[in-house]
Amino acid sequence: MASIVLSPIVTQIVEKLSDLALHHISLFCTLQTELQNLKVTVSAIHAVLLDAEEQQFHNRQVKDWLEKLSEVMYDVDDLLDDFATEAALKKLAAAAEDDYVERRKTTCWSTTVCSSSKQLMYGYRMAREIRAIREKLELLSKDKDNFHLEVRVDDDLASLPFRETDSCPPTIVVGRKDDHSKIVELLLDFESGDNISVVPIVGIGGLGKTTLAQLAFDDERMIESFEIKVWVYVSQNFDIKAILAKMLESINRKSQPADLALDVLKVLFQDKIRGKRFLFVLDDVWEENEGSWEALGKYLTVGAPGSKVLVTTRSRLVAEVSSKILKPATSTSLVGLPYFLEGLELDEAWNLMVKKAGVVPQSSNVESIAREILGKCCGVPLAVNMVAGLLSSTDPETEWPLFLQKELWTISEGENPIMSALRLSFNHLPAHLKRCFAY
C-alpha cells in the first residue's frame, strides 16, 4: 500500500497563507480573520506531520488519519489556488482600469460599484468555505492528540554532510567471487553438445542476480568464447516480438522499424545468429508459461552448439520451465541447476558495509552494534548498501545504537529484509523528496 506524504504540500500551504499579497484581495476583516485562523490550525498539524508519516508504517490508525487529512489539505490547496487566481485577475482589472482612466480622464461609477459588489460577494463566499474547511481540520487536529505525535523538524537535508566523489564511482562488488567463477564455468562448458542450454540464476530481490550476470557477461573469456553477446531486460512483459527486436537491435547496433512483422523479425534475427555461438542474457524474467518459452526457443535453434541463455529471475518455476525447454547447462563440477544465489556471509556483508559507508568503527561496542544491524539485512547486498549509505552520514557512537532500535526494523519479520531497509531509507529522505517515491 502506498505511503502518504503530506508534509511538502502542507509546507507550501503554510507559505501561501503567510503571503501577505494573498490577503490584499479581501475586502473586510472577517475574511482576514478566517485566513489567520486557518494558518494557525494548519501550522499546528504541520508540526507533527513528519512523525505521523513515520508512524503510519506500523500504526493503521495514524495512516487512516493521514488519509482523511490529505483529502482536506488538498481542498485547502485548491482554495488557495482560487485565491491566487482571483488576485491575478484583480491585478489585471486594476491595470486595465488605470489605463482607461488615463485615456478618458474619467471613471465609470456604475462599473466601479459593480466591481466592488462582486468582490464583496466573493469575499463572503470564500470566508464561508474557509470556515467549513477549518472546522474539519480542527476536528482532525484534536484526533492527532490520541496518537501522541511528536513535533519534528525536517532538517535531514540540511544536516547531511556531502563529500566529493568521482563522477563515475566504481561499482563495489563483495563476496561474489565464488559465484562468479561457477557461473562462468557453466557458461564456458561446451562438452554437452547441445545447441542451446540455459543458466538460470534464482534469488530474491536485492541479492545481486543482475550484478552477478553482469560480471559474467563482461568477463574477458566471454568475448573469446562467444561470437554474439546480447543483454535484454525483460521484466514482466515477456513479449517475443519485443525480445527479438531488442536482440536484433543490439546485434546490428541500430534500431529496427517498429512495424516489422514477427515473421520478418524471425528471418532477420535467425540470419544473424545462424551457425554462431551466442550468449543471450534475459534479465529479470517472470514468465512461467511453457508455451512462451517454447515460442522463444524455436527462434534460437539455429545458433551454433554451445550457445547459452543466462536468465535472472526471482521465480524457481521460471528456472524450471526455461531449463525444461532450453536444456540446463552443466559442467564437470556443477550439477543441480538452477543456480540459487544466497545472501552474503556476515563477514562479507561487513566488508561491503565498511567500503560503502567509508566508516570503520573505532570501538568493539560500535562494531558489535554494526554487525547486529547487518544481521537484520540477512546478507542481502542491496539492503546492506542502503543501510551503509544511511550510516555513513551519522555518528557511530551516538546514532548507530538509535538506528538499531528503529521500530521499522521490526515490522517486516518473515518478509524480504530489503523492505525494512527500503522503509528506513525512505524515512530518512527530506520531506520534499519523499513524494517522489510515495506512489
TrEMBL record:
Domain of life assignment: Eukaryota
Full protein name: Disease resistance protein RGA3
Gene source species: Linum tenue
Record keywords: ATP-binding, Nucleotide-binding, Plant defense, Repeat
GO-annotated biological processes: defense response
The keyword Repeat is assigned to this record: yes
Residues of the NB-ARC domain: 181-357
InterPro entries assigned to the protein according to its UniProt record, in alphabetical order: Apaf_helical, NB-ARC, P-loop_NTPase, Rx_N
Domain Disease resistance N-terminal: residue ranges: 9-98
Signal peptide per UniProt: none
Molecular function terms, GO-annotated: ADP binding; ATP binding
Pfam families assigned to the protein according to its UniProt record, in alphabetical order: NB-ARC (PF00931), Rx_N (PF18052)
